[in-house]
User: Fold this.
Amino acid sequence: MDASPFDTLKMVERLESVGVPAEQARMHASLLAEAMSAEGASAVERFADKQGVSLEFALIKATIEKLEIRLEAKIDKGLADLKSEMIRWVVSVGILQTALIAGLVLKLAH
Assistant:
């Protein structure tokens, strides 16, 4: 990334047009070009490595899969608890209903 991402000559001309001395304008343009080039190179180093990006995505995918498994386990446990609670309620209501009907039949039989 040696090439400057912007027109330094145009920058120098614009700086000179507002009264900046020529030497100073050239130095400003040169320093800005270097800084931008260094930042661009840094970005390329961070994001150009396909293996690094692939590895990062693989780690993220593995983490998501682990979370999915844990979440499914919690949901399954919650459903099992809910099912057992519903069975207890149905059996309890059935016994109560049977006792109530038996009591009414005995009351009517007297």
Helices lie at 8-17, 22-47, 50-109. The radius of gyration is 38 Å.
